[in-house]
Fold this sequence. Notes:
The protein is an all-alpha fold. The protein contains 11 helices and no strands.
Amino acid sequence: LDPVISYLLVQQQARMALATGDPVRVTRAMSLYGCQCAMLEPYSAEGDRALRVAREAVQQAGPYERGALALATGMTHFFRSEYDVAFRHGLEAEAILRGECRGVQWELAGTHLLLLGVYQWMGRWRELGAQLLEYLRVASQRGDLYGAASMSLSYGGFPGLADGDVDRAAAFIGTYRARYSPDNRYMQDAFEIISHGYVGLYRNTPRE
Length: 208
């Protein structure tokens, strides 16, 4: 979706949830809305208000809502470059989603992308590589092509770059690329271009 249309739809969802007064719907909608506000404007006052409402509502909700709120909070701090705080909330989200929820592959994939992003921006590339392989193993076991493709296309080059092996970095990025349709365009295509850009910078050939 166009980012503006997406924002408006999430905002509408938040208003509808507030109108119901249902803690579950309020927590889910306001968590997503707060995160989306932060993505567009990291220090958005409106986003902060949304997350405050979610924190109040989650007291009457369940584990899924607690996990979703932890992930949204972590993403908010990530957009603010507050990586230590983002990492802490990401680990909280992972623990809740893995230990207390079922059928949450999409949410876990988002959580793992957050944690891998923190490793990247904190320069912890070797740890990133080790976690990436573990996350890919779990995603493959669960048949989660979305998660596996998103993670490999976004961060697959960093293990090779950490070892100075540029060819391995470039090759690993597209590990799951051939397993989804080339006839459509996905957000993952943008991840792939950015990842190869990192490899190009390392080779001093950024235009490639």
